[in-house]
Amino acid sequence: MMKKFIYMAAFLLLAAMTLTACGDDEPKEKTTATATYNMTFSQDLLDACSLILITYKAENGRNVMKAIDQTWWSMTVTSDKFPAEFGVMYKFSTKADAELIKEKYDLSCTMTFSVKTNKGASYSNSVTIIDSKGVSKDKVVSTLNRYDGKSTGFRVTKDGIVSQANGLNYD
User: Fold this and answer.
1) In 16-69, beta strands by DSSP E
2) First to last CA, the chain
3) Residue 105 lies in a domain
4) In the prediction, which pLDDT does 2 show?
5) Residue 64 in contact with residue 58, Cβ under 8 Å?
6) What's residue 6's pLDDT?
7) Which pLDDT score, from 0 to 100, does residue 64 have?
8) 135 CB contacts (<8 Å, ≥6 apart)?
9) Is 13 contained in some domain?
10) Contact between 70 and 141 (Cβ < 8 Å)
């Protein structure tokens, strides 16, 4: 009888050890990347355009269009879809030559981009989009047309590796 009890106890102990989970029951922290866009526009650029539109990559790559009516714009977005895509496309609707009242225009637009992951990786970069000084009013439209529809973009991996990404989809 005692042997049966010892065998039964050993069997139950072995079964209990076999059925115990060894894995980590804690939920894993989801990796996220948070990007900040800071853009500056010269007043002459705003004066030369009837409309400046930017389309930026928002949360998880969603495209958002924004009309610009001031010399500074900033936006912070987060993504948990990797590789995360961040970027801005710019469209300049210029005024007709007859509507330009100054003889010369200083056309400039810059963007500072920074990204951080919740795992500690970070990256920042500044991009000059337009830097044309002293543009005569009869050349403003052709100068801005060279930059219309262009974009600046970045991809970020889960490990925080950032690479330039041209040709992101802004449709």
Assistant:
1) 33-41, 49-57, 63-68
2) 79
3) yes
4) 63
5) yes
6) 61
7) 98
8) 104, 105, 106, 107, 143
9) no
10) no
